[in-house]
Amino acid sequence: MLGTANTAWDAGSRQVVYRSDAYSANLLLAVPFSSRTGMTDIAWRIRGSGGSAAVTDGTNTDMATDQVKWTSSPNYVQSVKSTNTSGQQALTYTLSSALPDATAGSNSYVVEAWFYANDATTNANWALSSADTNGRWLFGINTGSAFTFASQNDCGIGTGWHHVAIVLDAGVRRFYADGIYKGAWDTANTGFTTLHIAQFSSVDSNDYNGWIQDLRVYSGTNKGYTGTDSGSANFTLPSSIIQSF
């Protein structure tokens, strides 16, 4: 049923309960990056219909235990870590439908995740991208404090775990770190079907350095992520995708 917590079992026949989502009908991608779900898209379990996004398990990423966002109720045990910076294959998800383009003027989507950056380099550390097709949708995430929004978007979120939300709201672009408005992001292309994780392209060497948890993509909604308050959070940050094990 849409909007209710869904129970499933992992490969070891252990129960996993996924948290309900008020925007489940708009959910295209949901990847907890937990020890029990790995790199699998489980959005269809929350929606109650459809299939998983096609995933390419890139050699620049791996599941790791050294940094984990959700460590109790539930304990994810692992997150995904970018481990290679020598132009290896990217981790990619091919979505079931194209995300709308801002140039159309009236479209909406949200791409969000929790990030733990591990490097201060700007104009690199590419964490989210669609670079191989249809222009460039590109975001770098680092441990700095500056936000530069241009054809590539350099985002300094500091150290530790931080929530990042890339919002297109009826054609208006907004970027949030921990719910705080940081500015209007920019890119040569806003629509995409393939999302690269922790890399610019499938062969680029400027990989994101750090960890990622709870990646989600919604289409056709701003998810209530509105407001331009630059001093405090404009919305409540999301809880974990997984409710319990």
Distance between the termini: 20 Å
Question: Total number of β-strand segments?
Answer: 18
Total helical segments: 1
Number of domains: 1
| CATH structural architecture | Sandwich
Mean pLDDT: 90
Largest sheet: 8 strands, antiparallel
Structural class: mainly beta
Tell me the series of helices and strands, N- to C-terminal.
EEEHEEEEEEEEEEEEEEE
Radius of gyration: 16 Å
Q: Spans with pLDDT under 50 lasting ≥5 residues?
A: 1-5
CATH topology grouping: Jelly Rolls
Description:
This protein has 245 residues and is an all-beta fold. It has a single domain, classed as Jelly Rolls (Sandwich). 2% of the residues lie in helices and 36% in strands. The protein has one helix and 18 strands. The strands form three sheets. Strands 3, 5, 6, 8, 13, 14, 15 and 17 form an eight-stranded antiparallel β-sheet that branches. A seven-stranded mixed β-sheet has the order 4-7-16-9-10-12-11, with no helix packed on it. A hairpin with a 5-residue loop joins β1 and β2. The longest helix is centred in the N-terminal third of the chain and has 5 residues, at 43-47. Mean pLDDT is 90; it is low at 1-5.
